[in-house]
Design goal:
Elements (H helix, E strand, L loop, with lengths): L1 H8 E3 L2 H14 L4 E6 L8 E2 L2 E2 L12 H18 L6 H21 L4 H10 L8 H10 L4 E8 H12 L6 E10 L5 E5 L12 H11 L9 H7 L2 E6 L15 E8 L3 H11 L2 E4 L5 H11 L4
Parallel strand pairs: 2-5, 2-8, 5-6, 8-9, 9-10
Antiparallel strand pairs: 1-10, 3-4, 6-7
The structure holds magnesium ion.
Magnesium ion binds next to loops.
GO molecular function: 5'-nucleotidase activity; magnesium ion binding; nucleotide binding
InterPro entries: HAD-like_sf (IPR036412), HAD_sf (IPR023214), Pyrimidine_nucleotidase_eu (IPR006434)
Protein name: 5'-nucleotidase
């Protein structure tokens, strides 16, 4: 039954090409493979309990209604600009920097605490796709790294992973905006380069470097970033065409891209089918991706 469901949710534009890519990744071996994934609406579900699932940014209640309202006002102003067809990329990039910068400023000014992150995540309408744990386990067993790229907030994504998966994975790294807290647990600043929706993909692998240095519990070698760059085969997961750019910092040999098309399916399916090797529609679980990953890692020909 699971199989029929899977088949109806999976769309492949060029099955022969996909076969070929699976074969060459399989032949190169798992030590050449890495997974690059977007977070919101890719690892998490688009619909949760009948309403739109929250994003890592959207779920945050900073325990200060005045500042929550201010951030909402920014959202109402900038969000339509982000998708405006009449604003050029350069201007839009400037607007996004402005938006993210102001939002981060409000979080600091409004006295965000780590405790309110924990509480926001506990209360949030956010949920991982079914099978995310199994996918991460499958990859962890084979020492295949997973890089999660997000223009959201790394600390929130980590809290979501911790509290909703009830498990930590040593192969999973987050490349996103990272907060700095003082000893009393108050946010004082942000670390590193600002990552917004329009620059999240350029040099994302290079941006991964300071994040790696930050997470002190790494068992891997200190040149983790280099070793990630040596993994020249990629399984990429995203829910926007723009997510395809996540592998831009990498000189990859073979890339299999998976797109989750969560809404507006009729209008977007042909575009997604052309852009991604595999498209999953209807807010699909991860079982199809796990199947794909096991084909890529199979020792049989
Ligand atoms: Mg997304």
């Amino acid at each position: 039954m699971e199989d029929t469901k899977q088949a109806s949710e999976m769309v492949v534009g060029d099955p022969a090409l996909l076969e070929k890519k699976i074969d060459s990744i399989r032949l190169a071996g798992p030590h050449k493979l890495q997974v690059i994934a977007d977070f919101d609406a890719t690892l998490t579900k688009f619909w949760v309990n009948g309403t739109r699932g929250l994003s890592s940014h959207g779920l945050l209640q900073q325990g200060n209604p005045e500042y929550d309202a201010k951030r909402q006002q920014l959202y109402d102003y900038y969000h339509p600009l982000e998708f405006s067809p009449t604003i050029g990329l350069e201007e839009k990039t400037k607007l996004m920097e402005e938006w993210w910068g102001k939002t981060h400023g409000l979080l600091v000014e409004g006295g965000l605490t780590y405790e309110s992150i924990r509480k926001s995540v506990a209360d949030a309408n956010i949920s991982f796709r079914e099978g995310v744990v199994e996918l991460f386990e499958f990859l962890e067993e084979r020492d295949i790294p997973v890089l999660i790229f997000s223009a959201g907030l790394a600390d929130i994504i980590e809290e979501v992973l911790r509290s909703k998966l009830n498990k930590t994975f040593k192969n999973v790294r987050i490349v996103s905006n990272r907060m700095v807290f003082d000893d009393d647990g108050h946010l004082v600043s942000f670390k590193g380069k600002l990552i917004h929706s329009l620059n999240k993909n350029e040099h994302a692998l290079d941006m991964a470097a300071p994040v790696h240095e930050q997470s002190g519990d790494l068992n891997g070698p200190s040149d983790e970033n280099d070793s990630v760059k040596k993994r020249t085969n990629v399984l990429l997961l995203g829910d926007h065409i723009g997510d395809l750019g996540m592998s831009d910092g990498l000189n990859y040999e073979t890339r299999i891209s998976v797109g989750f098309l969560n809404h507006n399916i009729e209008n977007s399916i042909s575009c997604y089918r052309d852009a991604f090797d595999v498209v999953f529609v209807n807010d699909a679980p991860m079982w199809g991706v796990i199947k794909l990953a096991s084909q890529m890692c199979s020792s049989e020909s």
